[in-house]
Structure to design on (451 residues):
């Protein structure tokens, strides 16, 4: 069984992971709104409480009638207070100060400073400043309580959100991996069916009756119906072949007998020769149609072994070199250094190259023909190129259909099955047949994926 590797991009594209991410984002948003609202409410309450305390303290100090009494009261309260928590300060108009901190004025604002040997709160202060007839009275409360409140809510947010995010993503990833493996099995089954293996089936395993199981069962049902229809068609084709074999053989025997009874001067001899040629052509067309149907139907293609594309190309080019010389055509090769090996059927691949060379000999307008084997980054390529008129771009997808012929080719030998058979052989080997402009001429390429 093929093991599917799940990369991060595949997991991110997985529906369960996306749903998990959406739920995590939704939960995080709700959590943030809820905790944020609670934090803002408690913060406002804490600030209001500090302001109320400051107002009460200020009212208690402001009742002093004289500067001396106010200075004495501020000193008494300052000695009992920690400047990191609360600051009491009175700055008289005469410059004398009382309290547990110093201050300076900047743009009309009172800026607290620590006295020598003491420290103020790092969290800052909420102050109430009142201008009296004899000086400035400052009462300030540290905002450490608000900092502690903020830290508490941040810790609460982290401890409530992070485990949920990690748990949700972990579960989503596990579900995605399980679903991705099942989707990969369905895709592998569909690829096998598309490649012609109609016996391929999806195994749902121990999965319950969910959507992927139903899709897999639908794929199996489709494959079973297609396999049954193809098998019925194959059986009909086999029956037709069996039924026509005897009549075709009899026609050939009768034509042989007719040819043997007609001498060179007999006016019926040319007619008998033409009849025999047409009978042979019908047999070849019928045989090619059977081969294409068998290959496209996923039938067995014989032994698959390690074969060298360069060796096959060189062998076919050597085989057709005499015919090319007789036609005044130069047939050359451009092969890759060293063997270019694939898994394939040597006889079928040789037939595909032979068909491409024959196609170039017939329709290449007597131009030079090059048989090449090369490697690129993604594939191994075997190509046959000529310098003829080529095939119009809008007809390149049509010439691989059975019995389709270009209008200008109807007067040349052939039956419109050569490229169709090459395409079927390519498909049976997991390759593709590409027809491209050779500027001028046609370049027919068989592209085999690298192992």
């Amino acid at each position: 069984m093929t093991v599917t590797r799940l990369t991060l991009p595949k997991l991110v594209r997985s529906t369960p992971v996306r749903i998990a991410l959406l739920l995590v984002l939704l939960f995080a948003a709700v959590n943030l709104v809820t905790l944020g609202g609670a934090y803002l409410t408690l913060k406002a309450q804490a600030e209001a409480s500090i302001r109320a305390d400051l107002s009460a303290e200020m009212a208690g100090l402001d009742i002093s009638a004289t500067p001396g009494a106010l200075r004495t009261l501020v000193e008494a309260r300052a000695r009992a207070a920690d400047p990191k928590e609360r600051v009491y300060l009175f700055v008289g108009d005469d410059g004398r100060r009382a309290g547990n901190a110093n201050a300076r004025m900047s743009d009309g604002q009172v800026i607290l400073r620590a006295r020598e040997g003491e420290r103020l709160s790092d969290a800052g202060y909420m102050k109430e400043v009142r201008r009296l007839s004899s000086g400035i009275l400052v009462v300030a409360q540290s905002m450490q309580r608000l900092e502690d409140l903020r830290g508490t809510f941040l810790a609460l947010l982290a401890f409530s959100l992070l485990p949920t995010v990690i748990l949700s993503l972990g579960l989503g990833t596990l579900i995605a991996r399980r679903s991705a493996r099942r989707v990969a099995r369905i895709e592998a089954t569909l690829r096998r069916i598309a490649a012609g293996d109609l016996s391929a089936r999806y195994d749902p395993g121990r999965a319950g009756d969910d959507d992927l199981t139903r899709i897999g069962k639908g794929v199996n049902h489709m494959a079973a119906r297609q396999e049954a229809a193809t098998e019925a068609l194959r059986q009909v084709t086999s029956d037709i072949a069996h039924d026509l074999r005897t009549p075709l053989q009899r026609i050939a025997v009768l034509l042989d007998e007719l040819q043997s009874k007609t001498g060179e001067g007999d006016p019926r001899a040319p007619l008998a020769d033409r009849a025999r040629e047409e009978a042979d052509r019908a047999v070849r067309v019928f045989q090619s149609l059977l081969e294409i149907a068998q290959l496209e139907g996923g039938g067995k293609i014989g032994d698959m072994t390690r074969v060298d594309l360069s060796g096959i190309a060189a062998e076919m080019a050597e085989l057709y070199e005499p015919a090319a010389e007789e036609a005044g055509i130069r047939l050359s090769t451009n092969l890759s250094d060293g063997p270019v090996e694939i898994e394939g059927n040597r006889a079928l691949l040789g037939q595909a190259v032979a068909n491409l060379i024959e196609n170039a000999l017939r329709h290449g307008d007597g131009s030079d023909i090059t048989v090449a084997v090369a490697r690129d980054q993604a594939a191994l390529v075997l190509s046959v190129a000529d310098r003829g008129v080529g095939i119009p771009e809008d007809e390149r997808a049509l010439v691989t259909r059975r019995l389709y012929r270009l209008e200008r080719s109807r007067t040349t030998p052939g039956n419109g099955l050569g490229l169709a058979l090459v395409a079927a052989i390519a498909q049976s080997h997991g390759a593709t047949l590409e027809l491209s402009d050779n500027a001028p001429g046609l370049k027919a390429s068989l592209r085999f994926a690298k192992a």
